[in-house]
Amino acid sequence: xTCMRRMTCQDxxxxxxxxxxxxxxxxxxxxxxxxxxxxxxxxxxxxxxxGFAQGYMIGKVEGEAHELHAHVSAVTVAPEARRLGLAxxxxxxxxxxxxxxxxxxFVDLFVRKSNDIAIGMYKKxxxxxxxxxxxxxxxxxxxxxxxxxxxxxxxxxxxxxxSLVCHKDxxxxxxxxxx
Length: 179
Hints:
Layout: E1 2-6, H1 29-38, E2 44-48, E3 53-62, E4 69-77, H2 86-100, E5 106-112, H3 116-124, E6 128-137, E7 144-152
Parallel strand pairs: 4-5
Antiparallel strand pairs: 1-2, 2-3, 3-4, 5-7, 6-7
């Protein structure tokens, strides 16, 4: 059985095994602490009945006015807990929070171009490929392009916000609107 709950600072010492996956971006403690202090409602962890981490999601809200959106910074599931729907549950939780708490226009995320499984999952969840960011991922194991995927939320009823209107593709990392 899996339990999902809001992440705490203590959880930062519990999810190292989840980060072993080569496609998982791993950040510094400062990065995680910053997210936990600024956007606690977007940090979620899943664990089994013994307390072992099975996955987590970190996200935030950024942008202003019509560009206000939720951003998925990381979603990852341990190999032994995959294909159970945890990633979909994480995404659903983030979308509900973005709608109910922050009333954002859209959700965006970046995924490695080679990560076909994740891209397929995001498409099934209603995300669209917005553009390519060349050499977005610059660290090991691979230097590769990132795919910027987006999903409009109910606030963007007429789909007029930049969530779905790409003006330039591809772009370089220094051309991103939000860093």
